[in-house]
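Write out this protein's structure.
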Amino acid sequence: MTNWENARKNRRKRREKRKKIILIACVLMSFLIIKGCGLNTSNQQNPGEQDAGKEVNLVSKEKEAKKEKQAKVEELKRAIAKNSNHINAASKYAYDTKEIRDMMTGKVESDGKKVAFLTFDDGPNNKITPQILDTLDKENVPATFFVVGSRVTENVKDVVNRIIKDGHGIALHSFSHDYHKLYPGRSGNTENILEEMNKANEALQNILGKDFSTHVLRFPGGHMSWKNMEGPTEALASNGMEWIDWNCLVGDGERKSVRPTSAAGQLKYVKSTLEQNENKDKAVVLLHDAGNKQLTANALPQIIQYLRDSGYSFGILK
């Protein structure tokens, strides 16, 4: 074979080799391209799907943010109004004690609005107070509880917290409920009364926290029952505290000879005592939630219904 033929043969081999290399490269590139497209289609959404996904995530985040905001609002509503005797949510039906007392007693003209204030003395306890709270909750009616400070202990912590959280008001009924200490010789003792009310307030703060502070009180036995009460009332007023008695009652604290012995009897007592008032727009009802007042707990639904049927709304005292 001549040199020319050998050169030609070698050139042909080189061309064939280049063709094989190019073919292999093309096949390899095609494989890589196909594989890449497969990855893109499996791992990426089309623009429409991406937008839909973004919208779903946005709606989800908005719902979560709204839910958190509502939770904060509810938490604020259930928090105790600073330096007050009720939660924030109760502010809309909380009435100034002195204003109600002045209208009730005729010292100032009534505003014409019929409001009933259910007031419970001598608690709290784990027997009757929870029954009262159950009825109030069922009837969606607020009340004011005039508590005896010495009975506000860890043993009734849950009940005290429930009174506040359920939207009721808490007021003072002294610390000891001891007539001899509060009214020696049936005469109001300013120093002892002021000490007792402050001590009762502190007992409540130990359970409810320092944001709680009540400025409402009821004298054990009632303001009208004792002599020389000008000094105590002036001293209390200078400390931002106001007292209130009542203008109708269920009779559960009256002497046995006249005390009602049935729920119907208590309702009748409320009607008759309320009718004796010249001004009936403001009904401050005296009841008791002491441990032996089961009859009062039983009669409460009828009393609420009567007041409601008579056109009264319900409020608490602040």
